[in-house]
Tryptophan synthase alpha chain
Amino acid sequence: MSASVAFERARSEERAALVGYLPAGYPSVAGAVDVLKAMVDAGVDVVEVGLPYSDPLMDGPVIQTAVEAALRAGANTTDVLRTVEAVAATGTPTLVMSYWNPIDRYGPERFSRDLAAAGGAGVITPDIIPDDAEEWLPVARSQDLDTVFLVAPSSTDKRIALTTEACRGFVYAASTMGVTGTRDQVGDAAADLVARTRKTTALPVAVGLGVSNADQAAEVANFADGVIVGSAFVRCLLDADSPADGVRAAGELAGQLSSGVRRQA
């Protein structure tokens, strides 16, 4: 199921979609599935399952801590696919967020085939641009997978147009420069980037900004089709006293964020 289905449903309800991220394998493979299902039950519309990678250059310290723990515990691509299968079974569009190197090592054709078999909706590839995705796009298209690339405030209008042309499902607007992480406030760059991106495509535009609470989610929902939250969910698990507490905290946060995208600012 393409992520676009969830965005269309949200649009019909006159709200933004809530996109939630968690790396596979943290706090354990089964534990991550439990957390993601709790997030879905509480209102997350689209799930991003992170593929743990040893050199996550674009991830902030919170996500890096979780990814490193997952890798130490032996999390691998097979675990990612198992996680996708379990979450996609809920009927929620479930994508993999991955750097290119792990996909390349696994084999792009094999990865696309196995992801589709697991019920995955597609892949978000933060570290490659469409120009460098000649090995990926044909095999992803052959399996009807969403191909989600990133645009940023530094992207030229031409680059945004080239990027959105290659996207399927939605466009990921990384509205702050640098690594991921929560932010104290929403800046003007996010709304400007969404406006520029919408000039080039009819696809939904989802913003990854560092949103961590309902008020921020409501503010971003005023101008974007989707609100992407990652570090705040991971922080729930890092701060939890037990896996059960982590599940509960992530579910509570998802509920608050879900109310935010419905309320808007």
Q: What stands out?
A: Confidence is low (pLDDT under 50) at residues 177-184. The first strand starts at residue 17 and ends at 23. The radius of gyration is 17 Å.
